[in-house]
């Protein structure tokens, strides 16, 4: 029985290693955004949420993640799109949700058994009406770094982009069987 078959592959080990290397982005607190000091209970609630997020981020978990946005931000301000990983006997499938992102703004690279999906979200919306004018802008860069398993065929990767969803498929290749040598134990 091959025990390695039952051990899950850690797709995110490279991403977890690189979290500390990202460039920080300025963040404003509630007081700076509105000009009005936040209520002390609201500040306390925000601080508790931040502590829980920080504690569980190391495990790749969001304890109360039902209300997480489609494009959550890491503590340093970089967008982190959600993704799904799937595997069959024949291929791996990675699906990344990129709402509001154009296909031309998405970049995929494989370097040293690591798949990097990166890009920028640029969105502008302008409304002109008789009594008002509104301009909304949304900008941000994103990056996901995935460690590829040994049996992923990196030479046959296929990527498609449709309606804000990036789908990456990678066939699985057969790995050479490892030679197991039995070592005789002798008594002395």
TrEMBL record:
Residue ranges occupied by any SHSP domain in the UniProt entry: 74-188
Pfam families from the UniProt entry: HSP20 (PF00011)
Organism domain of life: Bacteria
Family recorded in the similarity comment: Belongs to the small heat shock protein (HSP20) family.
Protein known as: Heat-shock protein Hsp20
Organism of this sequence: Geoalkalibacter subterraneus
Lineage, broadest ranks: Bacteria, Pseudomonadati, Thermodesulfobacteriota, Desulfuromonadia, Desulfuromonadales
């Amino acid at each position: 029985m091959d025990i390695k078959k039952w051990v899950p592959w850690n797709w995110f080990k490279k991403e977890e290693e690189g979290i500390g290397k990202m460039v920080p982005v300025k963040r404003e607190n509630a007081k700076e955004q509105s000009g009005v000091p936040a209520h002390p209970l609201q500040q306390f609630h925000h601080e508790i949420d931040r502590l829980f997020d920080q504690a569980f981020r190391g495990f790749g978990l969001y304890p109360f993640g039902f209300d997480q946005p489609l494009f959550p931000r890491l503590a340093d301000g970089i967008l982190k799109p959600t993704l799904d990983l799937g595997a069959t006997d024949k291929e791996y499938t990675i699906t990344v949700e990129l709402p509001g992102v154009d296909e031309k703004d998405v970049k995929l690279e494989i370097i040293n058994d690591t798949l990097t999906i990166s890009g920028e979200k640029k969105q502008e919306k302008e409304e002109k009406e008789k009594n008002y004018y509104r301009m909304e802008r949304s900008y941000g860069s994103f990056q996901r770094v995935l460690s590829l398993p040994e049996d992923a065929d990196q030479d046959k990767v296929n990527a498609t982009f449709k309606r804000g969803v990036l789908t990456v498929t990678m066939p699985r290749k057969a790995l050479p069987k490892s030679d197991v040598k039995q070592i005789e134990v002798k008594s002395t």
